[in-house]
Fold:
Amino acid sequence: MTLKQKLRIALDMSMTVLLLCAYAFQIIGKTAHIGVGIVLFVLFVVHIFINRTYTFRRIAMTAVNIALVLAAVTMMVTGIGEARQIHTTTAYWFLPLIGVHLGLHWGMFANFINKNNVIIVVTRIFACLFAAFGVWSFFDRDMFAKLFLGFSFDYWPSARPSILFFAETLSIIGLFVFVTYYGMKLFSKNTNGGSL
Structure:
């Protein structure tokens, strides 16, 4: 793995951790939420800049990337302007969008997995279980209502452990990664006779 690839992966992992923190407004507080949001926006711009290559496959990614840019800008502007309903609804849409984005790029991460059959099987089982947890989390967090302006904030009861909040949020993203990645593999197999 080259230094450039390592830096890209480090950037992606940092953005994922910061994204989870940004959704934990009730846990980390307003000041940290604003700081995380600003850093995340800057890293988002850097990420777009260093990944600016285009192929046929990239055309599909471009539409998702444009939606992500619009969502990021909307969150930044509405966060500053304190337009809470628009800010939080856009934030909820960011979760499936980032999941689709990661799913379209997941082949790059899958290539780093040792081609040992046992490891591949274990990884796929884990992915299926995590996606199933993502389905449960999607309903537990009532994401459908949040995506379509059902209500404007994410209430997290103090009695529930904070780690569960992060696990559920990550699993919702993971659900969309799973559906996108395997959906693209199926589409590629059916159209090209190959796999991603």
